[in-house]
Design brief:
By secondary structure, this protein is an alpha+beta fold. It folds into 2 domains: 3-63 and 193-225, no CATH class; 83-185, Roll (Chitinase A, domain 3), CATH 3.10.50. Helices cover 43% and strands 18% of the residues. The chain contains 7 helices and 10 strands. The strands form 3 sheets. Strands 4, 5, 6, 7 and 8 form a 5-stranded antiparallel β-sheet that branches. Strands 2-1-10 form a 3-stranded antiparallel β-sheet, with helices on one face. Helix 1 packs across helix 2 (43-57) and helix 3 packs across helix 7 (191-220). It is elongated. The two termini are 33 Å apart. The relative contact order is 0.17.
Amino acid sequence: MSVYVNGVEVDATGTDAQFAAVRELLRQRAVELGFLDAAITDIAEVDAAVEDLLAEEVAVPTPDEAECRRYYEAHRNAFRSGDLVHARHILFQVTPSVNVAIIRARAEEALNALLAEPERFSELARELSNCPSGEQGGNLGQIGRGDMVPEFEDALFRIDAIGLLPHLVKTRYGFHIVAVDQNIPGADLPFEEARGQIAETLQANVEEQALRQYIAILAGRAELAGVELEAAETPLVQ
């Protein structure tokens, strides 16, 4: 299906139709405000004009000290350096073709066996684990924050997580029996050292929201065919 933006046919070949429509909306707005000559088709020149347009029309306030401190206090765990654990696991993998209840029952059975005889962990990892680490007795080595999927890390980095965990850990990959052999806590990063990173994060979030709103306003006053874009009726500031 052809895509039209204000009567202009958009070439969406090899790209997402919405992306192509948004690009054309921005190009047309750049022409409207004099940032770009309508006859120019060079991609680099169009992109440069759109950047100038966004710098002019999408105002993004710089986060202040109070906002940065609120973010810091709400995300303290993200500003710790050096949290490490040494861990082992046994994975009972879940795939679309397996019976999840049966897999979970097998995992629970193995966990109960290990709670009674934890010294068998390596043996059962080699026998049962669907992870390549099973060949090394389930050893995952040293793990830092960000190395694993969040649901697995949530279990590893709990304050009381040490030794064989008495419950299964469920992730997108399946059910895990987990043993934390060593927990090496890191140190809190002072706000003064984290402020720059926080400001960049908040700025990026605000920029993304502002750009999305700006595009919605452009879409709200445009005539679109062959594509749907989220639209808003708030008038643009001329």
